Amino acid sequence: MSRLYRGVFIVWVVFRYGLDELVLSGFQKPWLARLTRVLTFGRALDAPRGQRLREALERLGPIFVKFGQVLSTRRDLMPVDIADELARLQDRVPPFPSEVAVATIERALRKPLSELFVSFEQEPVASASIAQVHFAVLRDRNNRLREVAVKVLRPGMLAAIEKDLSLMRMMAGWVDSLSADGKRLRPREVVAEFDKYLHDELDLVREASSAAQLRRNMEGLQLVLVPEMLWDYCTTDVLVMERMHGVPISQVDRLRAAGVDIPKLARDGVTIFFTQVFRDGFFHADMHPGNIQVSLDPQTFGRYISLDFGIVGTLTETDKEYLAQNFAAFFRRDYKRVAELHIESGWVPPGTRVDELEAAVRAVCEPYFDRPLREISLGMVLMRLFQASRRFQVEIQPQLVLLQKTLLNIEGLGRELDPELDLWATAKPFLEKWMMGQVGPQKLLDQLKDQAPRYAKLLPELPMLLHAYLRRGGADSGRVMDELLAEQRRTNRLLQALVYAVIGFALGMVVMQFVVRVRLF
Fold first, then answer.
1. Whole-number Å distance between alpha carbons of 307 and 211
2. Which residue among 1, 91, 109, 351 is buried most deeply as judged by most CB within 10 Å?
3. Alpha carbons 333 and 371: distance in angstroms, whole number
């Protein structure tokens, strides 16, 4: 019955905000669409469609708000006005009672609160749809007092999520079958993607491990601080981490008054992001202003502080090569190469004509070159490429959509801090370094290092293998020795050729690096 009541409430909200018009606009039976337009009593239809959708999701509760936030990242599927409106969704969720939080902590860590913490602030400092955060103080293994932040999962989330997800799947099926645009929007796929993100966020151990990985990756950069995870106090429902002291990055006036170099702060943000993308292939994918602070501590003054690691993105070497070459080809106005990259990636159906895709890409990219480079949005270019590729039935990979969403966040944040920020000038060194790494001797050395353990295991076995081979030869050992001597002569010739090849390769790399620098940049 609770599911039935919830379903009725959802249908009422859909009808109240006129969302049925969005769903049924392409329905094959025009009479049903006309009927919904006639029934206007009590319906809020004056606002734009994006605003109505956002308000309806807020009315439906935190799970639907989170769904709208994920949906806003799929700009390759959404009209621009709807995606922009959904991006305004915020987790304005009242905190749950502190008594419930304490009970969850004690159950998860199997100790009374008084044994776990020296002090614990009952009032949460932050509350979102998935969890809320309390500050506390504990004694570590060395008996030192440490300030910590305790993240507690909202109770009953799994049951609520499963109930709403089942209704979302049902609604996605309706959209898919009733709307002419349904199949293009792929509602079932979007709900499945949301299902994955949401269940990942429900596992706080997974979030802690992502934070630990980012912390290791960023240690040598000296630009960003990532809180240390206290693993003795981390479970699926509770996460305890080092408490970070900083000023929210949105408080620009306060940062400027404290002496922070704001233009440098903007450049550092871009540097952090492109380092995570092109060096590590592992990036913080939820870098909106609410998750970023700036340290004013004298020892770490002006560094970023990253928070909330529920969503991270990963990129393979193929993904990074696709992105780097796309950006480089775009700034050379080599639209044919951009089209070829789409085809080489295998995301375009076989038989797609390069010239047609090239023309579509040119129509997207050419208008940007009437502007200075500092006014060009790489995130927007990537989004427009995704949208132009839609007519060619390109299957956009989820990790690239997540990257594009984060890139838009970074650009918006960077240019809010410094309107003169030249994103390309900051990104160029990373693209250049990555491209050099793909064709230079360092790539060969890295591959040899990767294979070295296998070779090290085989080398000690070679004498035994040779001895066994000779014993099997028996009476034919003379012939075997002749064959071995002939093989040795061939090996010597091969080694000589290899030496010449290495010398030629080294000279070629010098020339190639010069050519690549000139051609790409």
1. 9
2. 109
3. 14
Q: What is the 3-state secondary structure (H, E, C) of 346-395?
A: CCCCCCCCHHHHHHHHHHHHHHHHHCCHHHCCHHHHHHHHHHHHHCCCCC
CA–CA separation, 312 and 392 (whole Å): 29
> Is 286 annotated in the active site?
yes
Query: Could you read off the pLDDT of 432-488 as tens digits, one per residue?
Result: 777 777 655 666 666 666 666 666 666 666 666 666 666 665 545 556 556 656 655
CA distance 276 to 28: 47
Q: Is 279 or 345 the better-scoring residue by pLDDT? A: 279
pLDDT digits (tens, 9 = 90+) for 3-34: 667 777 777 777 777 776 665 554 445 555 55
d(CA 126, CA 248): 13
Residue 444 belongs to some domain of the structure: no
For residue range 229-248, list pLDDT tens digits in order. 999 999 999 999 999 999 99
Q: What is the largest CA-CA distance in the chain?
A: 102
Q: Looking at the structure, do residues 235 and 333 belong to the same domain, yes or no?
A: no
Verdict on whether the full-model pTM lies above 0.85: no
The tens digit of pLDDT for each residue in 106-125 reads 999 999 999 999 999 999 99
> Which residue range forms the structural domain that includes residue 221?
93-162+202-243
What domain count does the chain have? 4
Asked if residue 135 lies in contact with residue 125, where contact means CB atoms within 8 angstroms, the answer is: yes
Residue of 355 and 62 predicted with greater confidence = 355
Q: What is the DSSP string of 10-24?
A: HHHHHHHTTHHHHHH
**CB neighbours (10 Å) of residue 351?**
6
Provide the β-strand partners of residue 350.
Answer: none
Considering 20, 237, 286, 334, which one is annotated as catalytic?
286
Residues 134 and 169 in one domain: no
425 and 475 both lie in a single domain: no
Residues 283 and 217 in one domain: no
Do 190 and 326 share a domain, yes or no? no
